[in-house]
Amino acid sequence: MSDDTYDMDLGRIRGALDGLGGVENQFMALKGEYLGDHERYRGWNGDKDAPDDYYTKTEPDDEKTVRTLTEAIEGLGLAVSALRAGLLESLGSVKAVQADVSELIEQQKRIADPDSGDDSSYESGEDEQSGGKH
Questions:
Q1: Rounded distance, CA 111 to CA 108, Å?
Q2: Do 112 and 120 meet the contact criterion of CB atoms below 8 Å apart?
Q3: Cα separation values, 133 from 65, 78, 126, 128, 130, Å
Q4: Which of 7, 59, 113, 114 is the most exposed place for a label (fewest CB within 10 A)?
Q5: What is the pLDDT tens value at each position of the chain, 134 positions in all?
């Protein structure tokens, strides 16, 4: 059942942002590791300077696999980066709303507290005697 409140744990959001930053870096490292590992096997299917039938049949698939996999890794890294940017923007928005609401609450407390010395409730030019008379 909802109590009509909106609560957000800013610490957990900051933790998620840190975690996403780590995942983004892991994707970039993974791409480099994959390309480095693949380089060790370059030429497994023959010599590009003297291609035979096997090389001619397998090289296009190998090139496509490398390209597709590196694009997928890059795409996942970009997706995580975009998710992180969106979460960071949301965090900024929440913090701005919290600051505005906190200020409004403090203003209302000052108005409601007769001992605060704040006469801002009378700044509009109205006094107690003008109410109710037309």
A1: 5
A2: no
A3: 84, 66, 12, 11, 6
A4: 7
A5: 456 666 777 888 888 888 888 898 899 899 999 999 999 998 889 998 999 999 999 999 999 999 999 999 999 999 999 999 998 898 888 888 888 888 888 888 888 886 765 555 445 444 444 444 44
